[in-house]
Amino acid sequence: MDINQIEPIARLINEFSKLPSVGKKTAERYAYHIIRASDEGAKNFADAIMNVKAKIKFCEVCGNYTETSPCRVCRERSSKTICVVKEPKDAMAIERTSSFKGAYHILHGTINPLAGVGPNDIRLKELLSRVAENGTEEVIIATNPDVEGEATAMYIAKLLKPLGVKVSRIAQGISMGSELEYADEVTLSRALSDRKEM
Amino acid sequence: MDINQIEPIARLINEFSKLPSVGKKTAERYAYHIIRASDEGAKNFADAIMNVKAKIKFCEVCGNYTETSPCRVCRERSSKTICVVKEPKDAMAIERTSSFKGAYHILHGTINPLAGVGPNDIRLKELLSRVAENGTEEVIIATNPDVEGEATAMYIAKLLKPLGVKVSRIAQGISMGSELEYADEVTLSRALSDRKEM
Question: Are residues B95 and A49, on separate chains, in Cβ contact within 8 Å?
Answer without folding.
Answer: no
